[in-house]
Write a structure and sequence with these properties.
Blueprint lengths: L1 H8 L11 E5 L6 H8 L7 E3 L10 H13 L3 E8 L11 H11 L2 E5 L10 H7 L7 E5 L11 E5 L2 H8 L29 H36 L6 E3 L7 E6 L5 H5 L2 H18 L5 E5 L3 E7 L7 H19 L2
Parallel strand pairs: 1-2, 1-3, 3-4, 4-5
Antiparallel strand pairs: 5-6, 7-8, 8-10, 9-10
Length: 332
């Protein structure tokens, strides 16, 4: 879906200028964008990595500066990619502010909402995500926060004519002519032979209704808040909550019980300790926690509180394993 969004956004650039087209991302942007750019035949230099701020969101001043400088240099800025729930930390970019920058500089505003856009169904999510309606396009993965058991990506755009322009081709002579009554879906997607994707969404929607999805997402937001608070309460045994979660990804690490000034001078050692904590938890086999790196190499742990089969009892088990692991590390 993000690849399709990239190709639709590129419709703003003349074919002869494709090599000058420029896409703006950050270190937190999912790598499907860089992969999509490569698949679209764009050069590696077409991707501009904009710095993030202290909250790991798009640095707005740096974004605007890059847009201005690149246009002066003769490049063709055509796409800014914001994220509604990054894979690393679940962070939601400042979508309102980014939309204003894009509108000011006449650049396509795409939101990768694969994980996070679904939370717009909840009251808490709407506070942050209602501005999705200002995007030129947004992607949603129904196999993530809508819990479907099969891959189903969706692209929404307010410009269907650009979608058509990106994928339409001269029809085969045996194909009927397109009209408002005869829509050729081949003209709106890279695929020719395609499965009935809509049924995957329509059927559970009819079966369960939006209310069930909303309740499930609200429950996971509640669990995330409680889980984060419980982790913060483990500061006395050396646990640290890296950031307040925007959605349902919790990022944390073991920092020890020594003064912070000493800890900061031993980041490499802390990375080793957190790798040990990760293995301690996962080898118990009760839960599975994944690692990631932030801020240029800080090894941290993350848990995504989302799966439809998840229960609070499993999260309690995870908290116990984290606590037991921290106590073991404090003995070293």
């Amino acid at each position: 879906a993000n690849f399709i969004g990239l190709l639709v956004a590129r419709e703003q650039v003349d074919e002869d200028d494709y090599h000058l087209g420029t896409i703006y991302v950050t270190s937190e942007t999912h790598n499907c964008i860089s992969k999509g750019a490569k698949m679209a035949g764009l050069r590696k230099r077409s991707l501009r990595e904009v710095p993030v701020d202290s909250d790991r969101r798009v640095n707005l001043a740096a974004l605007e500066k890059a847009l201005i400088e690149d246009r002066r240099a003769g490049l063709k800025p055509f796409l800014v990619v914001a994220t509604a729930g990054t894979t690393n930390t679940g962070t939601v970019d400042d979508l309102e502010a980014i939309s204003e920058v894009c509108r000011k500089h006449q650049v396509w505003f795409h939101v990768d909402g694969a994980y996070g856009a679904a939370f717009v169904l909840t009251e808490r999510g709407r506070t942050t995500l209602s501005v999705l309606e200002k995007s030129d396009s947004v992607t949603i993965d129904f196999h993530k926060s809508f819990f479907l058991p099969f891959a189903t990506g969706l692209l929404l755009t307010r410009y269907p004519q650009k979608l058509h322009g990106a994928f339409s081709a001269d029809p085969a002579p045996f194909m009927p002519e397109e009209s408002s009554q005869n829509v050729n879906f081949h003209s709106f997607t890279p695929e020719l032979s395609r499965t009935f994707y809509g049924a995957r969404i329509w059927f559970p929607l009819q079966l369960c209704g939006v209310k069930k999805w909303r309740e499930a997402l609200d429950t996971r937001l509640d669990w995330t808040q409680i889980f984060s608070q419980r982790l913060e309460a483990m500061a006395d045994i050396g646990m640290e909550l890296i950031m307040k979660p925007d959605l349902t990804i919790v990022v944390f690490r073991y920092r020890g019980i020594r003064p912070l000034s000493i800890v900061k001078s031993h980041e490499g050692h802390l990375n080793v300790l957190n790798d040990r904590l990760l293995r301690f938890i996962n080898e118990r086999g009760n839960v599975y926690i994944s690692p990631t790196t932030i801020d240029g190499g800080q090894f941290v742990l993350r848990i995504c509180i989302l799966n439809i089969r998840l229960t609070w009892e499993l999260l309690e088990m995870a908290l116990k394993d984290i606590k037991d692991g921290a106590v073991e590390l404090s003995k070293l």
